[in-house]
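Sample entry (396 residues):
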Amino acid sequence: MPKTPNDISRIWAVIPVFNNKDTVVDVARQARHWLEHVVVVDDGSTDTDVEKLFSGADITVLKHERNLGKGAALCTALNYLHGKDAVYMLTLDADGQHDPNDIEHFLPLLQEDDGTIILGVRDFNAPNVPKSSRFGRAFSNFWLHLETGQMVEDSQSGFRAYPVNYLAQMKLEGRRYDFEVEVLTRAVWSGLTLKQVPIRVFYPPAELRVSSFRPVLDNVRISLMHMRLVGRRLIPWPHPKLIKRGRAGNAINSLMHPIALLKRLLRENATPLGLAVSAGVGIFMGTLPLIFMHILAIAYVTARLHLNAVMALAVQNLCMPPFVPLACIGVGHFVLYRQGFDDVTWRTVVLELPDRLLEWLIGSLILAPVLASVMGVIVFIFARLFQRMSMGQTNG
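Predicted structure, serialized as tokens:
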């Protein structure tokens, strides 16, 4: 039987803080109104002595001597809670973006079982929401879907509830904002489920906003984490399961209902971005010298990453001989010999093909990302135009 928090004393609020002296006290005290246990993790703040801010309050303060990152702060809290008979770790940001009174919306779900991560979905109809936050949320949601097949509305929200026991068993490497990306993907791989609750959000005007998020460096870290997770997803090695859920028979059932399978394949990741990435993957794989293996390779990659297989398989036909392979051989020949390949005859291209596989491979590795990017942009533009036309007709 799953372990459930019989009372809210087994749900602990955790607030990582870095240089948010003006807001962290109010956030922590409001959280304490709802929960018996509140932990503030001072991640090397330099603007104040966080421990003094909470002197005399029944709020626990853990401290990093230097800034280690939000993920590291959450791991510190997790290690502390694991020895405290805590069932859930409910996290919220210290900058006042989250309303602690929304803890009320989490509590009913936290009484059900401890095999779930609860995500707070921010209301982006609020004023002053940065465009970068809107883009970041959509970007992260898309990659989470590729890695897990799960669709969520806000994979970047820091207002979450984590099951302590299961989280402590997961091998997580991210220690900054990439932690929040990694933990959702690995949780789904481990058999945990994701649930969502609506929450309010407050963004002050840009000139008053205090954020420890560094757009360039942290976005690079997040992108690298997604690359690692996608790479792991493509390896056909099962993920260790912390919770086993029945999924047997899905593949057989799909084969027994081919029309339903085709409809699902057509709908899979059919957003403009999803179609664009699917087309890019189709062109990329179609450009590589995977002789007689293109369809199988594309089918495998699209299945693993939950991409639109129909789109990927359709566009890969553009890479069929002779033009794209010849272009790859020409580029590869130039890279190897520093001279153009202009002796295009039946003998040099077909009969000598085994001798030109290296040229084809090198050229394809150069041209594939370029052609894939171009095709992805084209498909995205047309898909967006079609989407807007369809919305316009519906509204009309």
